[in-house]
Amino acid sequence: xxxxLKRVQEGINNQSLARMLGFKAEKAEEGVAVISIEKRDDLxxxxxxxxxxxxxxLMEAAGGYAALTxxxxxxxxxxxxxxxxxxxxxxxxKAYAKATVLKRGRQxxxxxxxxxxxxxxxxxxxxxxxxxxxxxxx
Length: 138
What we know:
- Helices cover about 25% and strands about 40% of the residues.
- It has about 140 residues and is an alpha+beta fold.
- Strands 1-2-4-5-6-3 form a 6-stranded antiparallel sheet.
């Protein structure tokens, strides 16, 4: 496991919501993070698909951890705004969110995030996220 992947997984382990939802760091390299979640009955909505709130949380986490890969040690990201479009249901046993840093500014970081069903290359949800670095020296 790379140092960056360990750093992202430690961030997940230190965040109670991420732990509760069962997020797992799959990939972390400069400007990119992939976070996964396993399907569980308590995360589904009435039709048996992954709840939109869970998908949004997964995507926001992926965005925050992608930002972490370009921030100095001790800094993290606080979300300022995001917009999600749900394009298809997440029905697979596992879902992924892949986040990429689009622009890293001193005060704002803009991220592109996509969610997928495991085994599919079709985008299930699309997010544009903006956040601000916090903590540590800027």
